[in-house]
TrEMBL record:
Residues 751-1005 form the EAL domain. It comes from Candidatus Symbiobacter mobilis CR. Residues 329-399, 444-492 form the PAS domain. It holds the Pfam family EAL. This is Signal transduction protein.
Length: 1009
C-alpha cells in the first residue's frame, strides 16, 4: 500500500497540472487568435481605403484630362477667331459627356459667369454662376488647376451636386471663363456600394472640412447621414487637423453606436477623405465562436480528466498487473517495434501510455521515460482530445479502427498522424496504437486546395514546364482566348504569338524572368478566331530549393476595353476629331521636342502654316457639312505631301501647320527644302475637290519660318512668325508662299498698338464726324456723306485708311459703326428744326460685319427713335461685299428698314463681282460710281465705259446715280453728258467738321431761296 500513495499523489498532481496547462494554453491561443483577427480587420480596412482612394483618383484624373482638352480648344478658338464656335464646342462637350459616365453634365461659362454651353440648362433662360466659389477662385488665381467643390444644393429640392472646374484664358492670359463638370454624391455612393463589406461595416467619403459626401450603406434617416453634415467625433477632428495622411484606430460611431475599426485616409490629388469602418462584432464573430468552442473543450477536458483520474485510481492495481504482462513481451517483438518507420504506443484501457517505440519518441521529441504514464490526450491538441475519446469508445466496441489526428510535440509544434489501433480485451484493457506522420501529405493537400481555388479566378492562367510546354490552363483562359485545354496542352505559347512585338521584346522579357524570377508587361496575343488583342501578363518562374527552374506560371487579363478607353481619351485630348490630325496641344509638345533636338544636333526645323483661301466664303455658300468634307480632303493631301517623320496638325477652322524636322544645318539649304515641300503643297491643294459628285477648286496661302532650336526659347514666337508669313502670302495675292520677315513682326506690333488705341478712342470719345457735300447739277446741296476721323492725342488727325482696316479685322468696326450712326442721327434731328437744313440727308457707310449682326435692324430702329431723326433723311451706303453672304438675309433686312422710309445707296459699284441677278432684287435707291473710275474718266476709255454702264444700269432700274471723287469741272461736265446729275468731291467741298459745315450751309441756303 505504501507504494500506491506516491502514485496517487503523482496522478492528482498530473491531473491538476494538465488542466492548468490546458486552460493556460487555451487562454494563450484565444489571445493570439484575437490579435490576429484584429490585425486582419485593420489590414482589410486599410486595403479598402486605398482601393476607394484609387477609384476616386482615377475618376478625377479622367475628368481633369477632359476639362484640360476642352480648355485648350476654347483658348485656341479665342486666339484664332476672337470668339467661341458654340455649336462645335457643344458637340465636343457632348462627346466627352458620353465617354465619362460618372459625369452628369459638362458646362462652359464666359468671363462674367454666364453659362454658354450646358445641355441640362433651360435654353430659354440664361444661367449665371459667378457667385459660386469655384468661379471666383479661378477668376482671382490663374494657376489653381482643377478645383473640386464641396456638395451644394441645386435648385431642385433635396438634390446635391459637386463641380470639378478648370479655368481657360483669352489672348494675353486674361481670364475668359471656366469649363466645369458636374457630378453628384449619388455617383460616389454607387461607387462605394461596389465594395464588398459586412452588414455593419461602413465606407464614408468626406470633403476637406469633413463634410459628408457619400456613405455606404446610407443612413439618411439618422443624425450624421445628411450630405454636408460635419458632425464627427472629437478624435477625428484632431486627426484631420494634425495633417497625417492615414491612420487606423478603434472607436464607437455616434450615428449608430457600433464599435468599429476605422481607417482614415486623405486623398492626395483630391480634397477628400475616405473613412472605412469595419464592425468589431462582425470581424470577431469567428473568434467568439472559437472562444466558445475552446472553453467548452477545456471544460469538458476538466470533467473528463477528473472522471478518468477516479477511474485510474480504481484501476491502479489492474494497471500494475498489465505492466507485469507487458514486461513479458519477447525481444523479437521489441526489435520489430524499434525498427518500424511508424510510431508505436501501447496504452491501457484508460489511455495511459505503457510503452513507446524509438520512432514515436523521435517524432514526438519525448523520451520513452517521459511518455510512460502520460495520457493520450496529453499528446493531442485540445481540439482533438474530445474526438480521441470518441474514437477510444468506438475501438473498444469494434476492436480496431483507423482515423486521423493531430498530435503535439514536446516543443509545442503540431504534426498530423494517421492512427491504426487495435484493442485487446484484457483486465484493464489494452490498446496497440501505430501512428504514421502525414504532416507533409496534409500540407500538400491544403496547398492543392488553395491552388485550385486561386487557379479558377477571372484571370487567365497558364502553367508550363521549364521548356515552356503547356501543362495546364484554367477556365478563364478558354473564355479569353477561345482555345480549349485539348487544343493547347502539349503546345507552347508561340501558338498565339503575333508579329506586333519584335523578337527583341521577347528576349528582354525572358532575360528579366531569368534574372529576377518574374516579369510584368503588355503582350499582344491572337485568339482562336484570329482576332488580335492586348493582354497584361504576370509571369513567374517556379524554382526548386537549389534554384533550378521547374515551371513557369503566367497570369493574364484582356485589356482591350481599357486600351480602347485610353485611346479614345487620347484622341479627344490630342487629335482633331474632324481630320484625325494632331491638334494644337499635341503639336505644341512635338514642337518643344523638335526645338530641343535642333539645339542638341545643330540642325534646322521649319514650320509651315497653311490656310485655305476664301474658305469662309465656301463654307457660308455651301454649308458647314461640305466645308468639313473639304477640310478632310485637305488634311489627306497635306499628309501625303510630307515625310513620314514630319507632323501635320490642324489648329482649327481652315488653319493647318506642318512641322518639318532634321533639315540641313545651313539656313539656305533648309529654306530650299522647306520651299520644295511648300510648292508641293500648293500644287496638291489646287487640284479639284470632288464633293457630292461636284468639282470645286480652292487654293491656299502658306507662311514658312525656319527654326534654330539653339536661338529660340518657347514655341509662341515660332507660331506667330508662321502666321505672319501666311498673312503676307495672302496679301501678295494668295495661292503663294512667303517666308517670315522680321519686319512683319514690327508691322504686327504697330497694328496691335493701333488696335489698343482704337479701344481707348472709343472710351475717350476721340472720334469725329466730318461731312462732305453731295450736290445736284446746279450745285445745290442735297445732303452730306458722314466720314469718320480720329483725333489721336499723340498723332493728331489719323486718316480713315490707317485705322478702318484694323477696325474691320478686330471687330471694332461694329462699335465704331454704331457710334457713327448715332452721331449722324443726332445731327439729322438737330437739323429738322431749322427750315434751312430740314431737307438735308446724311449718308452713313455701313460695313458688312456691322450689317450682318442679327440685331442690326433693331439697332437702327432704336437709334432713330432715341434721337428723333426722320428715317427718310437717313441713307445707308452698302458695299458689294454684303452680297457674298446669304442674299435672302440681306434683302430681308433691307426691306424691313425700307418699310419705314430709310434709303439705300450701293457704294463703290463696279469694283466687286456681284451678280446682276442679285442686284436687281435689292431694294436700292441709288448707285454710286466709285472715285477710281472718275479719277481717269477723261483719259481712260475703260473707266469711261464703266461709268457709262453704271449710269445706264441705274436708269434702267429706276435708280438715281451719284459720282464721287469729282474734282474738276471737266469731269463734272463729262458725267453730266452721260446722264449723271449728282456729284460729290473736292470740286464742291472737302470733308469738314460740323462747325465749318454750319458756316457753309446758311449762305448757300440764302442764295437758293
Amino acid at each position: 500500500m505504501k507504494s500506491k500513495w506516491p502514485i496517487r499523489s503523482l496522478l492528482i498532481v498530473s491531473l491538476v497540472c494538465s488542466n492548468i496547462l490546458v486552460f493556460g494554453l487555451s487562454w494563450y491561443s484565444l489571445h493570439r487568435s484575437k490579435l490576429q483577427h484584429e490585425a486582419n480587420a485593420r489590414t482589410l480596412s486599410q486595403n479598402i481605403a486605398r482601393a476607394v482612394n484609387r477609384e476616386v483618383a482615377d475618376g478625377m484624373e479622367m475628368v481633369d484630362l477632359a476639362l484640360s482638352a476642352l480648355g485648350d480648344e476654347l483658348e485656341h478658338q479665342l486666339l484664332a477667331h476672337g470668339s467661341i464656335d458654340l455649336p462645335a464646342m457643344g458637340a465636343l462637350v457632348n462627346r466627352y459627356e458620353q465617354r465619362l459616365p460618372h459625369i452628369e453634365a459638362i458646362a462652359v461659362t464666359d468671363a462674367q459667369g454666364w453659362i454658354l454651353i450646358d445641355r441640362t440648362a433651360d435654353p430659354r433662360t440664361r444661367v449665371h454662376v459667378a457667385h459660386r466659389e469655384h468661379f471666383s477662385r479661378h477668376q482671382e488665381r490663374p494657376n489653381l488647376g482643377l478645383i473640386v467643390t464641396k456638395p451644394f444644393l441645386l435648385r431642385a429640392p433635396d438634390r446635391y451636386a459637386m463641380v470639378l472646374s478648370k479655368r481657360y484664358d483669352a489672348v494675353g492670359g486674361h481670364f475668359a471663363g471656366t469649363v466645369y463638370a458636374m457630378t453628384t454624391p449619388e455617383y460616389f455612393a454607387r461607387m462605394l456600394s461596389r465594395f464588398s463589406i459586412g452588414p455593419q461595416d461602413a465606407i464614408v467619403l468626406r470633403d476637406a472640412d469633413l463634410g459628408l459626401i457619400a456613405r455606404y450603406p446610407s443612413i439618411a434617416d439618422r443624425v450624421g447621414g445628411r450630405i454636408g453634415d460635419n458632425k464627427v467625433s472629437e478624435r477625428l477632428q484632431k486627426l484631420a487637423a494634425s495633417g497625417v495622411e492615414s491612420a487606423t484606430y478603434d472607436a464607437t460611431v455616434n450615428s449608430d453606436g457600433i464599435d468599429r475599426i476605422i481607417t482614415f485616409q486623405r486623398m492626395g490629388s483630391t480634397p477628400m477623405t475616405v473613412l472605412v469602418g469595419l464592425a468589431t462584432e462582425d470581424h470577431l464573430s469567428n473568434w467568439k465562436q472559437e472562444r466558445t468552442m475552446t472553453l467548452g473543450v477545456a471544460s469538458g477536458f476538466l470533467l473528463l480528466s477528473m472522471l478518468l483520474g477516479w477511474i485510474m485510481l480504481r484501476m491502479l492495481q489492474q494497471a500494475m498487473a498489465r505492466e507485469d504482462m507487458l514486461a513479458q513481451h519477447t525481444d523479437a517483438y521489441q526489435s520489430i517495434l524499434a525498427t518500424t518507420l511508424d510510431g508505436y504506443l501501447s496504452l491501457d484501457g484508460r489511455g495511459q501510455v505503457r510503452d513507446a517505440n524509438p520512432t514515436y519518441c523521435r517524432l514526438s521529441k519525448y523520451t520513452r521515460d517521459e511518455l510512460l504514464g502520460m495520457r493520450i490526450h496529453h499528446l493531442t491538441t485540445q481540439e482533438d482530445a474530445a474526438r480521441t475519446l470518441k474514437h477510444i469508445q468506438e475501438i473498444i466496441e469494434e476492436g480496431n479502427a483507423q482515423f486521423e489526428s493531430i498530435h503535439r510535440r514536446k516543443d509545442g509544434s503540431l504534426w498530423n498522424v494517421e492512427v491504426s489501433t487495435t484493442y485487446r480485451d484484457v483486465p484493464g484493457g489494452q490498446f496497440f496504437v501505430f501512428l504514421r506522420d502525414i504532416t507533409e501529405r496534409k500540407q500538400a493537400e491544403t496547398n492543392l486546395r488553395i491552388a485550385a481555388t486561386v487557379f479558377e479566378s477571372h484571370e487567365g492562367m497558364i502553367v508550363t514546364d521549364a521548356n515552356q510546354v503547356i501543362l495546364r490552363i484554367n477556365r478563364a483562359f478558354t473564355d479569353i482566348t477561345g482555345y480549349t485545354a485539348g487544343e493547347v496542352l502539349g503546345q507552347t505559347p508561340s501558338l498565339w504569338k503575333t508579329a506586333r512585338q519584335e523578337s527583341s521584346y521577347y528576349d528582354a522579357m525572358w532575360a528579366g524572368i531569368r534574372f529576377t524570377g518574374m516579369w510584368q508587361g503588355e503582350l499582344w496575343n491572337r485568339r482562336k478566331n484570329g482576332e488580335e488583342y492586348p493582354a497584361w501578363f504576370s509571369i513567374s518562374a517556379v524554382r526548386e530549393a537549389a534554384g533550378v527552374t521547374t515551371h513557369y506560371v503566367a497570369i493574364f487579363s484582356d485589356i482591350t476595353q481599357r486600351k480602347a478607353s485610353e485611346e479614345s481619351l487620347m484622341q479627344l485630348a490630342f487629335y482633331d476629331p474632324l481630320t484625325k490630325l494632331p491638334n494644337r496641344k499635341l503639336l505644341a509638345d512635338r514642337l518643344h521636342q523638335a526645338l530641343a533636338s535642333s539645339a542638341r544636333h545643330q540642325h534646322q526645323c521649319a514650320l509651315l502654316q497653311v490656310d485655305v483661301d476664301d474658305f469662309r466664303t465656301f463654307n457660308d455658300a455651301l454649308g458647314h457639312e461640305k466645308g468639313d468634307q473639304l477640310l478632310q480632303q485637305v488634311a489627306k493631301r497635306l499628309t501625303a505631301c510630307v515625310r513620314e517623320g514630319d507632323t501635320v496638325a490642324r489648329l482649327g477652322g481652315d488653319e493647318f501647320l506642318v512641322l518639318m524636322e532634321d533639315l540641313s544645318a545651313q539656313p539656305q539649304d533648309a529654306a530650299n527644302q522647306a520651299k520644295m515641300v511648300g510648292v508641293k503643297v500648293l500644287a496638291a491643294l489646287c487640284q479639284p475637290y470632288t464633293i457630292d459628285e461636284v468639282e470645286h477648286r480652292r487654293s491656299c496661302s502658306i507662311g514658312i519660318t525656319l527654326l534654330d532650336g539653339a536661338k529660340i526659347d518657347g514655341i509662341e514666337e515660332p507660331l506667330k512668325w508662321a502666321e505672319l508669313a501666311m498673312y503676307q502670302a495672302k496679301e501678295a495675292g494668295r495661292n503663294t508662299l512667303r517666308f517670315f520677315d522680321p519686319q512683319m513682326q514690327a508691322i504686327v506690333n504697330v497694328r496691335a498698338s493701333i488696335e489698343h488705341n482704337l479701344h481707348r478712342a472709343l472710351q475717350e470719345n476721340e472720334f469725329r464726324l466730318y461731312y462732305q457735300p453731295q450736290v445736284d447739277e446746279s450745285g445745290r446741296i442735297l445732303g452730306f456723306e458722314a466720314l469718320i476721323r480720329w483725333l489721336d492725342p499723340q498723332r493728331g488727325m489719323v486718316p480713315p485708311g490707317e485705322f478702318i482696316p484694323m477696325a474691320e479685322e478686330s471687330h471694332l468696326i461694329v462699335s465704331i459703326g454704331r457710334w457713327v450712326l448715332e452721331e449722324a442721327c443726332r445731327q439729322l434731328a438737330s437739323w429738322a428744326d431749322d427750315p434751312a437744313t430740314a431737307h438735308l440727308t446724311i449718308a452713313v457707310n455701313v460695313s458688312a460685319r456691322q450689317f450682318h449682326q442679327d440685331e442690326f435692324v433693331e439697332q437702327v430702329l432704336h437709334t432713330l427713335h432715341h434721337s428723333g431723326a426722320r428715317a427718310n433723311h437717313l441713307k445707308l451706303e452698302l458695299t458689294e461685299s454684303l452680297l457674298i453672304s446669304t442674299v435672302e438675309t440681306v434683302i430681308g433686312k433691307m426691306n424691313a428698314l425700307k418699310s419705314i422710309g430709310l434709303r439705300f445707296s450701293l457704294d463703290d459699284f463696279g469694283t466687286g463681282y456681284s451678280s446682276l441677278a442679285y442686284l436687281k432684287r435689292l431694294p436700292l435707291d441709288q448707285l454710286k460710281i466709285d472715285q477710281s473710275f472718275v479719277r481717269n474718266i477723261l483719259v481712260e476709255p475703260n473707266d469711261a465705259a464703266i461709268a457709262r454702264m453704271v449710269i445706264a444700269l441705274a436708269q434702267s432700274m429706276g435708280l438715281s446715280v451719284i459720282a464721287e471723287g469729282v474734282e474738276t469741272v471737266a469731269q463734272r461736265d463729262f458725267l453730266y453728258d452721260m446722264g449723271c446729275h449728282n456729284y460729290q468731291g473736292y470740286l464742291y467741298g472737302r470733308p469738314m467738321p460740323i462747325a465749318d459745315l454750319t458756316r457753309l450751309l446758311h449762305p448757300v441756303m440764302q442764295a437758293t431761296c
